[in-house]
Amino acid sequence: MSFIPGQPVTAVVQRIEILKLRDGDNLILGFSIGGGIDQDPSQNPFSEDKADKGIYVTRVSEGGPAEVAGLRVGDKIMQVNGWDMTMVTHDQARKRLTKKKEDVVRLLISRKSLEEVVRQSMMQR
Amino acid sequence: MPAEVKQEQSPSNQTSLAMMQEPQEVVEETVTIEEDPGTPTSHVSVVTSEDGTTRRTETKVTKMVKTVTTRTVRQVPLGPDGLPVPEGSSPLGSYTDSIDRRYMKNGERFITPQATSTLTRSYNNYSDSYNDTPDTQFRHYTLHDGYGDMPDNYGSLSRGVNYRPYRPYMPTGGYRPENSYTLPIRKDDYGHVAQPQVPMGSSTVDLNRSQPERFQPEPYGLEDDRRSLGPEDEEPYDLEPDYSTANRRTLPGRTIREPLRNGPRVRGYEDPIEAELIDERHPYIHGMYPAPLAQPERGSMASLDRMGGRRSPSIDSIRKDPRWRDPDLPEVIAMLGHPIDPVKSNAAAYLQHLCYENDKIKKDVRQLKGIPVLVSLLDHPKAEVHRKACGALRNISYGKDHDNKVAIKSCDGIPALIRLLRKTNDMEVRELITGTLWNLSSYEPLKMVIINHGLQTMTNEVIIPHSGWEHEPNEDSKPRDAEWTTVFKNTSGCLRNVSSDGAEARRRLRECEGLVDALLHALQSAVGKKDMDNKSVENCVCIMRNLSYHVHKEVPGAEKFQDPSALQAPGSAGTQRKKKDDAGCFGGKKAKEEWFNQGRKNGEHDKNYDTLDLPKRTEPTKGFELLYQPEVVRLYLSLLTESQNYNTLEAAAGALQNLSAGQWTWSNYIRATVRKEKGLPILVELLRSDSDKVVRAVAIALRNLSIDRRNKDLIGSYAMRDLVSNLPSGQQRPAKNLEEDTVVAILNTIHEIITDSSENARSLITAQAIDKLVAINRTSQSARETKAASHVLQTVWSYKELRNALTKDGWNKTHFQPIAAGTPKGSKSCKPGYDDTTLPLMEKSQGHRGCSGGDMIPMDELGPDGYSTIDQRDKDSKYKSSDISSDLQEREPLKNDTNRKHYIRSNRPTVSLVDACDVKPQPVDSWV
């Protein structure tokens, strides 16, 4: 999914709610992110548009909260708890996800397969 | 900004340079077809010279006689099918095809196994039974005499026997022996036997054709011919009045008449006729070349073979008839206009052979007006005709004699070649066409003509399809890799040459639809496949390099990106961004981004090179814009890392050099991207290359890259030692023994690096460079080296804070001053406007930089002029000429100073060459 900065984004999104796992002082989501406007977007293996500097899920730990919640590698994170993630630096995204006081993060993610499903179902109708 | 233009490699230089270095036709691909005596097979030798910027291919067919023979033999099995054809020409046609295949391939896979084996077999048989040696040739004849009487014996002979006559020739390989063979007797025999059996219609045609060509110096020969041919032979030959050899003249007449004459007799006589044909062919065969007539022979041979067993001995004897000579040049050229196609094509093939590596013949062909005829044959509908014509043109177009190239051009040969390229699907023909165009493209005045007529066609017909690039890739179509075909290699070589023809040529190529895209795709696939040492890749990179030259001045809309004020100051991120917004399209987003940037924590981040924000694209980049997108940096760096081909390395470094020159937005990006992609260590590594030109290109690239402040810091810290080690020390030069140009380039790079950076000047001192510099300054035989070294020394001395250290090392002011007295070399050669003597006066102190105003003016003047001059000059001279570049060099630092100095030392980390900051401050990927 690509977007043009400054233009409204149309995307098929899915809500995913992840319950953080507490490990001592740390809260664990169980996935890693890549991307951000300060990163080299061309190195992102998941983006369709190589100019896309969005935040992407790069790894999901097995059995972790994220996997349980249905997050998958390659998902693009659109929002975290309502905060836009399409125009943030990598670090901003990381911080947004790791707020100590929040036990739950609600993600809005887009996924290529979702778009395809929607497209297909629309065509069928 | 003219001033900024550092040294760019002028494409023209490069190309022409290449051409010069390897005189125009550097690489020569030679295909020689020979048969060696023992085994009548054809050999193709391919000679390729390494350097070959311009690469020419010539095909040589040597000793056609044998070749022909071989084919014939080979044909034998095939023969029956082809021959029966009612039309005389058809057998010929088939013959031609096979021949073409063989040698047109240019020999790479030249020898056809079948042919060889067949031939050998027959040959062997022959030898065995007769135990012939060249010496015994006469014996054969003797036998022949007996022939007529003893048909049976002959008939029983194996097929090989039929060939027997040739045998003697082949081993000898020379022409003369054959002549000696000539025996009147044979003819007689033949005549008796053959004559009555007049050929069927089809064979007649061939016969006729061949006969005229035959030349018989000896008295007897004529008689025979007459007999069989009849009186009509005497008619003058239209095409070649000069060549009055009776036989020749008869050509047209016979052709026409014979069929009539023979017509009635038809079928029954096939055998004899064929025999006759063979006989007639002989002359050409003897010639050793694929003489024009050779084709018919083949047909006849085939039939002969077919018949062989039952045939009457007369055939053998006929064949032995040696009284033939090779057609001479005017005859061959006249044959190009012969009404029968196979004659045309054979004549062309013969010409190709004659011209091979023979400048004299090429010239003669030109003067005999052979070139227009060949060009006109390009439009001939028959494949073998235009193929052979094209082959001849390729050889003719190869060489230093530009008149040949001009001759091809002036009879509209270039459009004809392009037309044929569009029309034909035959790979061989396409190889020949593109090879010819490549040859033609080495001559400056023809470059634009080629662009005008053929650029888009070559791109559409060759470059794009072979590059694997697709205009609009389908969902399901896999990305294809480039195919390194000969056609692609030739075409890219041609484009490489024409791309050096100045600004207009570059513009045309850049705007040629799909060209840049396809070249990039090809290169990317080369990198992907790790196959980047070949000539095609080299050509592609060179084109890219040339097209990248002056891109910041020449591409449409370049002005928009010229951003003088913001550009020099990479530190002032905010302003730069705003400027960009003004220029373009992405207003909304920019504001946001800026907000983010500001939000980012501290001063560290305000060096905008860390977070280089490229303009976002609303649609995929295409066409010439691809040339300067930061993405190409990675491509060039991959080539620089992986390729073993010096020319490719040089070109890739040159491309980076060109792209990083100039002060427009994109060159800023490029400079930063090279750093971010960890390109600096790669380039520095290449300073140790054994190849002079690679070192030079890399050095100049580093110089341009150091316009970027951070690059300059990095290069100063980590490349200085390698730069210095390339300098000659005192009397003896380093092992590499670099050329003057290279030494000057390195000195200029050092100068650029230490300008405005006393840190870098300090590392220069640490690298033990002063010794060398002083030595060069005092003792070098080269005025350019002296001058460049002197500039460096002056700059070093201008840092007052370093003087202490220098003095401690035993240096004093005089070491750093230009050697004015006694050495005339330095300033004399310089442009008047620029005099070194002013330099010592200027001190590179902070204060001095402030007064850049005065300095700027000269820069502007010099900059552009210097450039254009370089451009022009380079066409002839090898590299950028020293004086000019050094002029530029001196000024350049000044120009940038104004903006730079403020932020310079503010953040100067102890950088490693791979800048930590650049590598991405944050983890690329972080667990949450």
Structure commentary:
The complex is a heterodimer of chains A (125) and B (928). With 125 residues, chain A is of the alpha+beta class. Chain A has one domain (13-123): Pdz3 Domain (Roll). Helices cover 21% and strands 30% of the residues of chain A. Chain A is built from three helices and eight strands. In chain A, the strands form two sheets. In chain A, strands 1, 4, 5, 6, 7 and 8 form a six-stranded antiparallel beta sheet that branches. The two termini of chain A are 23 Å apart. Mean pLDDT of chain B is 62; it is low at 1-318, 565-611 and 821-923. In chain B, strand 1 and strand 2 form a beta hairpin. Chain B is mostly helical and 928 residues long. Chain B has 52 helices and four strands. Strand 4 (31-35) of chain A pairs antiparallel with strand 4 (925-927) of chain B.
* Integer-rounded radius of gyration of chain A: 15 Å
What is the helical fraction of chain B, as a range of percent? Answer: 55-70%
Number of helices of chain A: 3
Give the ordered list of helices and strands of chain A: EEEEEHEEHEH
User: Which ranges of chain B are low-confidence, i.e. pLDDT below 50, for 5 or more consecutive residues?
Assistant: 1-318, 565-611, 821-923
Query: What's the N-to-C terminus distance of chain A?
Result: 23 Å
| Radius of gyration of chain B over all CA atoms, rounded | 36 Å
Please name the two chains that share the biggest interface, counting residues whose Cβ lies under 8 Å from a Cβ on the partner chain.
A-B, 28 and 26 residues
Mean pLDDT of chain B: 62
CATH superfamily of chain A: PDZ domain
Task: Please give the alpha-carbon distance between the first and last residues of chain B.
Answer: 48 Å
Could you give the order of strands across the largest sheet of chain B? 2-1-3
| Total E-strand runs of chain B | 4
Total helical elements of chain B? 52
Which class of secondary structure composition applies to the elements of chain B? mainly alpha
List the uncertain runs of chain A.
none
The pLDDT mean of chain A sits at 85
CATH level 1 name of chain A = Mainly Beta
Largest sheet: number of strands, sense, barrel closure of chain A? 6 strands, antiparallel
- Based on secondary structure, the structural category of chain A is alpha+beta
Shape type of chain B = elongated
